């Protein structure tokens, strides 16, 4: 088990090579393999998290090479936590992908699984690695896989994927340039090593430029306003399983890297005091929240609405980073988890609705609660979490973010956070209203009688279980958020804040 | 003295358990569904009732469920005020459940499962509000109450109902975020959110900050307490089925707002601080405005339920006025009015429902001569109406008497006049209904005896009779009077 940090990456990676081989002869075997691989990764990530909690940080030397020359995987509370989120959400999405994939991409399912595993490999790799360049490698693996996965979606996906390809590549290039600059001045790529060397060089222009490149590159990758332009198209047209994975996990990994670079590679003193980056991040985040939510209100397409809501939610998380105090970062990290669960549930739910109804137009969702009672119940719980109604988890992260903003005495963010709850309520209740209280246009004459008698026509269990699991997780995470904070998040907050 | 007991948690969960079985039974097993509603309501009441003796022994039942955040517990604490509200709401749920069954079946309403499910959840949330030991716990259940009552407002699913639902959400959710801000700010100032009799905010923060905090608290809770100009949602929400208006929009939801206001006045800020900040009279004038204006508005409403809604707005502000005066009798009278108004107003709404089920009439102008057809209904209506106008021997008199005494104790003659004017307005908008139904004749109404079904009649009569009993013997049953006095003692030291 001492090799578990590398195993959680190797297992999906190896499996992704086996998927096309097996799929060549027997298509049906691909799915169990994918699920099994991700299941093992999830269990390992839990094991790693457990041993971080009991024994402290894990240091793993790849191939036995000494850092800073060799690649070191270093897992502490922060990325242990991230690895659990990434692996579990991917596992649930993989379970879901079977039936939705059958309908959406019947003849490309093998390729889909292969690339899907590569994406998860890349994401997990970014999370566990302690090496700047190694991180870039995984970033590219994940990005290329994501471009491909988006491109196999419906009409319009190609354009969305191409936009993302351009923007994402620019982001990745910025990141690589940053790594290069740091390597020029320090000669090191190991994060821990860099954090020791860099404080002496904080006044170097090269170092500052590198920092700027990192932030902009990562902001592009996570879709932070105003660099979000690729995001709505990509999330809307991708297959539903992919949208769920991208929205809930991929953007969070970029957030994680941002936190890592700002507060581990560089120290908080640099990121907060020397450079006005936190103020800039707060402002962009604040605008992102309002912009994303106002755009979401006017979208008729359910997935597009969720995509714009993601732009806003990224704003929440970045706002917490921008506040740069304990409460704010607690809210931010809690929201990373909460938003992963919630948006995952919403996108999977939207996928399920499309699966049955064949449309994503919000106005045509009438009487959905009769047709799909469980999906709609889960969707409603997730929507309430987005609005921030207790005891769902979304409330608690919002509460901490508000406390963080009050602690920082920045009232404008308090107002924006509160206002955003109401904006969220507007567009989520629009969906709920249509689904629960409006009859379908055609049959509205006798819909009351129909409503009572109509048989439920739920999505297959394989799709329903992940949705319900996420909905249950939303409530449980909410109720146990105090526990999560006191065992994990409070130790994941970087020192010196 | 604190005793750890799981009873408050069970009382809260009982509604949710009931709701689960209601959902399970569904439309296919109507009788089982209705049976689980009744069973849950009775069980909940008995649980709450079993906690009453402890409170009189000066003990507080406490149950810490879970840590929500470092230093913040999801905590139930049954103090006198909590049990007062809990007993009231859980008892009224029993009779409303019986009434609901009669009403929903009588009108052959659609989506009854959803209706009973949401009702049970809403009562669960109400118990949570009653027994919340700190502001955050209260807020959690307060928001659950908002969400679970929304489907009840939209129940009819017409365009008008959906619009009413939107309005309801806009108002209550905005109120919610205002409360959330106030709570977060309180936590920032004190690091604690636990209710303390007499307040815990003293010496935390400057005068201006605390004044602002008080205003945001009152504006937040004031939405559900329907203080003008935040009251607009309540008349609109009258589109909901009548049992919903009766229990939720006359007792549970609106009184939750009042309960929140009173918790803030008596248990967060406390009398001493409010005197020091000179805030109590500002609040008293603010609600006095509502008391008078809502009475005038009620005069001109032709829709019976809307008239009742304005009368509710009036009564809610009277309760808050009682607390704001901060004198022993005023607080006692105000808190007593929570219960008394609950019984009287539920009687009135039940009457309105009985009339609707039997005649499908909703307008005040259509009720001429109705007393001949429905003597019991109109008789109960007269009892409720006279009680609200403050005529003895109905319980409304007792609470208004103490409120008037309290105004004198506080040496504020203005508020005495406000209370008297409001009583006169009450009489002015209720008595014509009684008069017309007795002495006028109408073509449309058949003057032969033809009452509503007994499932509707019995709860109505029970509520009316209790209104009288509480007027003659205010300490009957669970000693509401003694409780109200105790609450005053515990907070006004």
Characterization of this structure:
The complex is a heterodimer of chains A (497) and B (493). Chain A is built from 21 helices and two strands. In chain A, strands 1-2 form a two-stranded antiparallel ribbon. Chain A is mostly helical and 497 residues long. Chain A has a domain at 328-497. Chain B has a domain at 279-493. Chain B contains 19 helices and three strands. The two termini of chain B are 18 Å apart. The chains are: A mainly alpha (497), B mainly alpha (493). At the A-B interface, helix 17, helix 18, helix 19 and helix 21 of A face strand 2, helix 6 and helix 7 of B.
Largest interface: A-B, 38 and 36 residues
Assembly context of the chains: heterodimer
Number of extended strands of chain B: 3
**SS element count, helices of chain A:** 21
Strand content of chain A: under 5%
Extended strand count of chain A: 2
N- to C-terminal distance of chain A: 34 Å
Structural class of chain B: mainly alpha
Q: What is the percent of helical residues of chain A?
A: over 70%
How are the strands of the biggest sheet of chain A laid out side by side?
1-2
Order of helices and strands of chain A: HHEEHHHHHHHHHHHHHHHHHHH
Number of helices of chain B: 19
């Amino acid at each position: 088990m001492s090799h578990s940090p590398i195993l959680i990456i190797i297992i999906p990676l190896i499996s992704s090579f086996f998927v096309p081989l097996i799929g060549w002869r027997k298509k049906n075997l691909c799915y169990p393999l994918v699920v099994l691989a991700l299941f093992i990764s999830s269990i390992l990530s839990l094991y790693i998290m457990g041993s971080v909690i009991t024994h402290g940080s894990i240091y793993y030397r790849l191939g036995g090479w000494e850092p800073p020359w060799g690649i070191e995987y270093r897992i502490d509370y922060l990325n242990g936590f991230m690895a659990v989120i990434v692996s579990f959400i991917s596992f649930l999405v993989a379970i879901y992908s079977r039936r939705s994939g059958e309908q959406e991409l019947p003849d490309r399912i093998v390729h889909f699984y292969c690339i899907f595993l590569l994406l998860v490999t890349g994401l997990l790799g970014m999370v566990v690695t302690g090496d700047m360049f190694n991180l870039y490698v995984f970033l590219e693996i994940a990005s290329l896989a994501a471009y491909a996965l988006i491109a196999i979606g419906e009409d319009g996906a190609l354009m969305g994927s191409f936009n993302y390809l351009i923007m994402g590549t620019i982001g990745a290039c910025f990141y690589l340039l940053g790594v290069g600059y740091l390597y020029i001045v320090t000669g090191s790529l190991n994060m821990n090593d860099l954090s020791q060397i860099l404080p002496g060089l904080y006044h170097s222009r090269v170092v500052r430029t590198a920092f700027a490149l990192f932030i902009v590159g990562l902001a592009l990758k996570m879709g932070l306003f105003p660099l979000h332009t690729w995001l709505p198209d990509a999330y809307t047209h991708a297959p539903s399983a992919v949208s769920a994975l991208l929205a809930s996990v991929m953007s969070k990994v970029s957030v994680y890297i941002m936190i890592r670079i700002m507060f581990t590679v560089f120290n908080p003193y640099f990121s907060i005091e020397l450079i006005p980056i936190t103020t800039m991040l707060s402002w962009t985040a604040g605008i992102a929240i309002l912009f994303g939510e106002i755009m979401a209100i006017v979208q008729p397409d359910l997935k597009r609405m969720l995509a714009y809501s993601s732009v806003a939610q990224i704003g929440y998380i970045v706002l917490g980073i921008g506040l740069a105090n304990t409460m704010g970062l607690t809210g931010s990290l809690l929201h990373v988890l909460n938003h992963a669960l919630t948006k995952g549930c919403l996108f999977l739910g939207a996928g399920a609705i499309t699966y049955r109804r064949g449309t994503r137009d919000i106005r045509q969702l009438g009487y959905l609660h009769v047709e799909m009672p469980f999906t709609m119940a889960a969707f409603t719980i997730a929507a309430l979490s987005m609005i921030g109604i207790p005891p769902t988890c979304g409330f608690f992260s919002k509460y901490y973010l508000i406390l963080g903003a009050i602690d920082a005495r920045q009232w404008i963010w308090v107002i924006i956070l509160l206002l955003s709850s109401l904006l969220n309520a507007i567009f989520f209740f629009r969906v709920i209203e249509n689904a629960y209280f409006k009859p379908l246009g055609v049959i509205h004459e006798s819909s009351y009688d129909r409503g009572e008698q109509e048989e439920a026509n739920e999505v297959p269990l394989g799709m329903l279980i992940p949705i319900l699991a996420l909905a249950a997780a939303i409530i449980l995470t909410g109720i146990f958020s105090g526990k999560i904070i006191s065992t994990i998040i409070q130790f994941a907050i970087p020192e010196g804040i | 003295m604190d005793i750890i007991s799981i009873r408050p948690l069970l009382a809260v969960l009982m509604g949710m358990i009931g709701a689960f079985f209601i959902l399970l039974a569904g439309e296919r097993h109507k009788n089982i569904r209705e049976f689980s509603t009744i069973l849950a309501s009775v069980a909940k009441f008995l649980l709450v009732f079993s906690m009453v003796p402890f409170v009189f022994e000066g003990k507080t039942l406490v149950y810490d469920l879970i840590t929500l955040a470092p230093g913040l517990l999801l905590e139930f604490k049954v103090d006198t005020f909590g049990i007062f509200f809990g007993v009231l709401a859980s008892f009224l749920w029993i009779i409303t459940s019986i009434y609901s069954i009669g009403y929903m079946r009588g009108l052959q309403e659609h989506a009854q499962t959803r209706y009973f499910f949401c009702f049970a959840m809403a009562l669960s949330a109400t118990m949570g509000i009653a027994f919340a030991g700190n502001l955050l716990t209260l807020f959690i259940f307060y928001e659950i109450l908002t969400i679970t009552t929304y489907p009840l407002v939209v129940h009819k699913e017409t365009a008008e109902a959906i619009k009413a639902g939107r309005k309801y959400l806009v108002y209550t959710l905005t109120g919610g975020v205002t409360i959330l801000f106030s709570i977060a700010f309180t936590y920032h100032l004190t690091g604690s959110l636990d209710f303390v009799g007499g307040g815990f905010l003293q010496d935390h923060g400057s005068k201006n900050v605390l004044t602002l905090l008080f205003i945001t608290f009152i504006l937040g809770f004031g939405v559900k307490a329907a203080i003008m100009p935040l009251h607009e949602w309540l008349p609109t929400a009258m589109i909901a089925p009548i049992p919903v208006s009766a229990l939720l929009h006359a007792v549970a939801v609106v009184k939750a707002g009042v309960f929140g206001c009173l918790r803030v006045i008596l248990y967060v800020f406390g009398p001493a601080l409010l005197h020091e900040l000179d805030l109590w009279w500002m609040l008293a004038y603010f609600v006095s405005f509502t008391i008078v204006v809502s009475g005038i508005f009620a005069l001109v409403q032709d829709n019976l339920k809307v008239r009742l809604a304005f009368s509710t707005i009036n009564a809610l502000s009277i309760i808050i006025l009682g607390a704001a005066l901060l004198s022993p009798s005023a607080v006692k009278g105000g808190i007593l009015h929570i219960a008394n108004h609950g019984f009287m107003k539920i009687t009135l709404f039940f009457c309105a429902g009985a009339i609707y089920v039997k005649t499908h009439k909703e307008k005040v102008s259509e009720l001429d001569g109705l007393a001949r057809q429905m003597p019991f209904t109109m008789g109960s209506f007269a009892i409720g109406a006279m009680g609200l106008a403050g005529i003895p021997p109905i319980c409304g008199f007792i609470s208004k008497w103490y409120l008037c005494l309290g105004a004198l104790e506080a040496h504020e003659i203005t508020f005495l006049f406000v209370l008297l004017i409001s009583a006169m307005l009450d009489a002015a908008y209720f008595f014509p209904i009684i008069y017309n139904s007795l002495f006028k004749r109408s073509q449309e109404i058949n003057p032969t005896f033809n009452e509503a079904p007994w499932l509707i009649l019995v709860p109505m009569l029970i509520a009316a009779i209790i209104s009288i009993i509480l007027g003659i013997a205010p300490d009957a049953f669970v000693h509401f009077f003694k409780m109200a006095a105790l609450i005053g003692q515990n907070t006004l030291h």
